[in-house]
Amino acid sequence: MEEVYIGTKIIAAEPMDELMFSIKIKRVDRVIPVDSNGAGQPGYKVRYEDGYISWSPKETFERAYRKVTNEEKIIITGKGE
C-alpha cells in the first residue's frame, strides 16, 4: 500500500533561469526554451550536501524549500551571516 512521506534536506541554492544554468554547467544536450526577453524558465540552481548540482523550476523549488533564518543557520553551521 502506498504511504505518504515528508523528506528534509539542507541545500544551497541561488535563483537562476534554466538557460543560464545550462550555460554555466555547460549542458548543451538539449534546446532550452526562452521567453521574448531571451530568458529561460525561472528557477534555482541547487547544490546538495554531497556536491551534486541540479536545476529546479521556481514553483517546484518554492513548494519544497524555504530560506533558513540566521538563527537556524547558526545552529546548522555554527556561524551566522
> Radius of gyration in whole Å, from Cα?
16 Å
Instruction: Please outline the major beta sheet.
Output: 3 strands, antiparallel
Based on CA inertia axes, which overall geometry fits? globular
What oligomeric state do the depicted chains represent? single chain
Helix content: 25-40%
Report the β-strand fraction as a percent range. Answer: 15-25%
Order of helices and strands: EHEEHH
Number of separate strands: 3
Structure, described:
With 81 residues, the protein is α+β, with helices and mostly antiparallel strands. It has one domain. It is 27% helix and 17% strand. It contains 3 helices and 3 strands. It has a 3-stranded antiparallel beta sheet. A hairpin with a 5-residue loop joins strand 2 and strand 3. The longest helix has 8 residues, at 70-77. The termini are far apart. The mean pLDDT is 89.
Tags for this entry?
27% helix, alpha+beta, 81 residues, globular
Layout: helices, strands, pairs:
Elements: E1 12-15, H1 18-24, E2 43-47, E3 53-57, H2 58-64, H3 70-77
Antiparallel strand pairs: 1-2, 2-3
Brief write-up:
The protein has 81 residues and is of the alpha+beta class.
